[in-house]
């Protein structure tokens, strides 16, 4: 009996000792794997750092590349493409205008009734149409026939309030602003040659042809309605126009969304650039010097690039291209986070002894889900836990692991936001609105007589950046980091005059307003 009790006690003690050892081992093991993951985190954070001096170098490099691209087509990694638009809206536009936004495997048609300075945008309606897969691989004629057919169906639904509000002015032609986010070499405000199909299209023909002519022929084939493409634009130009419609101090349009790009009004354009063709960018004298940059292509050794960015780039469909966009676009931020976490799981056993299968799947973590984790302020990071479960099927995580995930999201977003800020300040530097440059507005102001009216007007002038895109609009921390870095980079005087405004839907509303500015039929406005 005593022996039995003894052996039971020994057995119990052994079990307890083993359990305690397991707990200690687990505790040690947990700490040690979190410690290893923390080392990787610190390494990553260090590699992503964007101190002020780095941002300053980047802004300067952007401004220099802008000038190089203006001096000579192809002279810079920034494309610096003239837009050929002749007017920017001022709020007086009137009439019914359409927009067609072809930016991906969906397109959007929109109608907008403009009522002039008092009524502004009276009413608008839109429809999103998915392009059938077969058409992404077919011919340009089939694609444009489909687009024209859906556009006509949409026009047929035009209600009496749109027709009543429109001053037909003796004609029945509807005018349209066309936004295309494929690379286009624009030849006038409503013509442009397709350079390349991107965004999932694998169409055999169409490259080298005028996109407006292809759409126009398809619309003519449909019969029944007469439609004229009044303007062909990039989405950044629509964003700037949409902002300018409300505020004529808007000088810059920026998209910080799935992808990224910017356009601006070039105020320091030397006269010969405006009048001569050949070496310089050929901007006809009757157009506005609005340039869109294709800044997503920018690359500089000053950009804080990590092994993760290199890996992502090497495995992408366009290695070596769009370096800045791959660090800043919402298309990539979630994927960068996933790659960092996958490496931590692989090398530091974050999330357990084996790498969760779904964590290995490229692009499974959307930036939207990442932003939810980043916004999590609960003490136990409950939302991080939920997203890890929902997206990667990781059933259980420790708080220390969730803190690491949160910190990775913060690092990736802070870098993207601060780089975007440096690029915006690069534009301000180029146009002399950053307050540091000797050619800046303030020094030009100083040169004017103190009591001159011109000086008084300029002193009041603000620089407004019209901004669109999901990162700016919906990713709160991104927006805060970006704004803070812009103000860090600017002089106090320039910062006081800078306004960053949300200008929603440049590719839709902005395009229809620009169609009004370039209308052949709308009543003239001043
Ligand atoms: C396109 C640009 C566009 C930007 C924002 C980029 O991928 O090349 O033309 O402005 O996306 O949508």
From TrEMBL:
Q: In which pathway does it act?
A: Carbohydrate metabolism; hexose metabolism; Carbohydrate degradation; glycolysis; D-glyceraldehyde 3-phosphate and glycerone phosphate from D-glucose: step 1/4
At the highest ranks, the source species' classification is: Eukaryota, Viridiplantae, Streptophyta, Embryophyta, Bryophyta
Reaction catalysed by this chain? D-fructose + ATP = D-fructose 6-phosphate + ADP + H(+); a D-hexose + ATP = a D-hexose 6-phosphate + ADP + H(+)
Q: Which UniProt keywords apply?
A: ATP-binding, Glycolysis, Kinase, Nucleotide-binding, Signal, Transferase
Output the PANTHER family linked to this UniProt entry. Answer: HEXOKINASE (PTHR19443), HEXOKINASE TYPE 1-RELATED (PTHR19443:SF16)
Provide an example Pfam family for this protein: Hexokinase_1
Look up the record and give one Gene Ontology term from the biological process aspect.
intracellular glucose homeostasis
Fetch the InterPro entries from UniProt. Answer: ATPase_NBD, Hexokinase, Hexokinase_C, Hexokinase_N
Root EC class: transferase
Q: Report the EC code(s) recorded for this entry.
A: 2.7.1.-
Q: What is this protein called?
A: Phosphotransferase
**What sequence ranges are listed for the domain Hexokinase C-terminal?**
252-517
């Amino acid at each position: 009996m005593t022996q039995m009790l003894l052996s039971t006690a020994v057995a119990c003690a052994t079990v307890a000792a083993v359990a305690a050892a397991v707990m200690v081992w687990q505790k040690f093991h947990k700490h040690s794997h979190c410690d290893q993951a923390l080392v990787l985190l610190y390494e990553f954070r260090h590699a992503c750092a964007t101190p002020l001096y780095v941002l300053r170098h980047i802004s300067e490099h952007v401004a220099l590349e802008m000038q190089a691209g203006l001096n000579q087509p192809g002279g810079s990694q920034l494309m610096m493409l003239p837009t050929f638009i002749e007017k920017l809206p001022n709020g007086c536009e009137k009439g019914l205008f359409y927009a067609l936004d072809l930016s991906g495997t969906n397109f959007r048609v929109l109608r907008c009734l403009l009522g002039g300075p008092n009524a502004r945008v009276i009413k608008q309606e839109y429809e999103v149409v998915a392009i059938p897969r077969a058409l992404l691989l077919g011919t340009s004629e089939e694609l444009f026939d489909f687009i024209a057919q859906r556009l006509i169906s949409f026009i047929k639904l035009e209600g009496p309030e749109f027709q009543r509000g429109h001053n037909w002015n003796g004609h029945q032609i509807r005018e349209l602003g066309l936004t295309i986010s494929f690379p286009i070499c624009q030849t006038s405000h409503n013509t442009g040659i397709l350079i390349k199909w991107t965004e999932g299209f694998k169409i055999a023909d169409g490259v080298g042809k005028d996109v407006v002519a292809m759409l126009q022929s398809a619309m003519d084939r449909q019969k029944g309605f007469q439609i004229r493409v009044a303007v062909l634009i990039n989405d950044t130009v629509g964003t700037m126009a949409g902002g300018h419609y409300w505020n004529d101090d808007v000088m810059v349009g920026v998209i910080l969304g799935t992808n990224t790009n910017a356009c601006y009004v070039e105020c320091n354009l030397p006269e010969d650039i405006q009048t001569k063709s050949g070496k310089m960018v050929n901007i006809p004298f009757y157009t506005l010097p609005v340039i869109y940059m294709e800044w997503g292509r920018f690359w500089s050794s000053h950009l804080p690039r990590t092994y993760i960015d290199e890996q992502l780039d090497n495995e992408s469909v366009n290695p070596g291209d769009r370096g800045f966009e791959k660090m800043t676009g919402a298309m990539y931020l979630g994927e960068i986070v996933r790659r960092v976490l996958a490496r931590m799981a692989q090398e530091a056993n974050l999330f357990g002894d084996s790498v969760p299968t779904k964590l290995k799947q490229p692009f499974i973590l959307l930036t939207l889900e990442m932003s939810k984790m980043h916004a999590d302020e609960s003490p136990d990071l409950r939302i991080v836990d939920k997203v890890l479960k929902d997206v990667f099927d990781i059933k259980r995580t420790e708080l220390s692991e969730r803190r690491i995930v949160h910190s990775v999201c913060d690092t990736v977003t802070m870098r993207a936001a601060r780089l975007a800020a440096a690029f915006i300040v690069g534009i301000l530097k180029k146009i002399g609105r950053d307050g540091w440059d000797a050619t800046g507005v303030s020094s030009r102001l100083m040169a004017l007589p103190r009591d001159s009216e011109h000086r008084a007007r300029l002193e009041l002038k603000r620089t407004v950046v019209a901004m669109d895109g999901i990162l700016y609009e919906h990713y709160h921390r991104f927006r805060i980091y970006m704004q803070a870095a812009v103000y860090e980079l600017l002089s106090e005087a320039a910062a006081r005059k800078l306004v960053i405004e949300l200008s929603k839907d440049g590719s839709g509303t902005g395009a229809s307003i620009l169609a009004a500015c370039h209308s052949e039929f709308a009543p003239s406005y001043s």
